[in-house]
């Protein structure tokens, strides 16, 4: 068994957008990511207690892991935790594709262990989950999570690990005001009942819930997120206006409130950070306590939008 309980800060830090080509201005979000800028992000996050960094082998096909390791240089390994993923769709054809992908991740991350290792999606739970057991026994991974799994798939992974004395300790699914399928399917209740940490990704819906975008100020044309969200921005206006108003009362932004909602629901949001200012927002979100009536109002407004933001990579929960 793992000797320690999986712990995490109130918010985990996402580095998907760090896996771009490395060319300035060529980030997934048009961000001008630089080594010095990302080091500043890391230093500010670490000093504010945000010490769990989430990446994946498939993010930029390894580049996110490499860039993250460079940005973390100067911080002792015991000062931060690393979360990365095995993605079945890019598995090799060797004898042990899970171990092979992990070893490449460890090499890029410059470490001998990963604190939290995920099966990225449920392509074949029975096939891939058993490969985690020797990696847990060796200490190369300390905790196991499953991402984009439904309740049946979570239970199967847990059963397989349980036969060896381990268990699924974390679930990472798309969860936001606009997409609460994991809650409605009972996954959040399951996690609460069994001491499993639920990590929510896309809590800001790629910026659609930050209040920065509106029908008059849409997302940049030609971007993948513009294709998904620009058409529904008119239906989000009432919700984002209310997020902004609640934030105004607390010297916070709409994005801070959307993140605080995810925390209030008992989840650990994974929020993408590409500049040091994002850390200021997480500090604010961490300090916001939403009243029950505010949570209920936001959820009612979100339901009233009638939008479905399920990603093309997701199956129903």
UniProtKB/TrEMBL annotation:
InterPro entries: AKR, AKR_Detox_Biosynth, NAD(P)_OxRdtase_dom_sf, NADP_OxRdtase_dom. CDD domains: AKR_unchar. Residues 11-302 form the NADP-dependent oxidoreductase domain. Keywords: Oxidoreductase. It holds the Pfam family Aldo_ket_red. The keyword Oxidoreductase applies. This is Aldo/keto reductase. It comes from Actinomadura fibrosa.
């Amino acid at each position: 068994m793992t000797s320690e309980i999986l712990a995490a800060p109130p918010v985990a830090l996402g580095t998907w957008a760090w896996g771009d080509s490395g060319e300035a201005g060529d980030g997934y979000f048009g961000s001008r990511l630089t080594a010095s800028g990302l080091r500043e992000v890391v230093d500010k996050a670490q000093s504010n207690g945000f010490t769990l960094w989430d990446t994946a082998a498939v993010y930029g096909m390894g580049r996110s892991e490499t860039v993250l390791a460079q940005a973390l240089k100067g911080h002792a390994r015991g000062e931060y935790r690393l979360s990365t993923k095995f993605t079945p769709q890019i598995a090799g054809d060797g004898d042990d594709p899970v171990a092979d992908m992990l070893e490449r991740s460890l090499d890029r991350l410059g470490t001998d262990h990963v604190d939290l290792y995920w099966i990225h999606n449920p392509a074949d739970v029975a096939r891939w989950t058993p490969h985690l057991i020797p990696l847990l026994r060796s200490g190369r991974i300390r905790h196991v999570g499953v991402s984009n799994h439904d309740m049946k798939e979570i239970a199967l992974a847990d059963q397989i690990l349980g036969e060896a004395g381990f268990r699924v300790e974390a679930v990472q699914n798309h969860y936001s005001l606009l997409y609460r399928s994991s809650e409605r399917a009972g996954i959040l209740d399951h996690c609460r009942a069994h001491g499993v940490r639920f990590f929510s990704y896309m809590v800001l819906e790629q910026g659609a819930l930050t209040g920065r975008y509106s029908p008059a100020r849409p997302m940049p044309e030609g971007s993948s997120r513009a294709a998904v969200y620009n058409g529904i921005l008119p239906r989000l206006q009432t919700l984002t206006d209310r997020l902004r108003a609640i934030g105004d009362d607390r010297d916070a932004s709409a994005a801070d409130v959307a993140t605080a909602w995810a925390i209030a629901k008992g989840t650990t949001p994974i929020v993408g950070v590409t500049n040091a200012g994002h850390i200021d927002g997480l500090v604010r979100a961490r300090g916001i306590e939403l009243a029950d009536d505010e949570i209920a109002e936001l959820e009612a407004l979100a339901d009233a939008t009638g939008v479905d933001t399920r990603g093309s990579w997701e199956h129903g929960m």
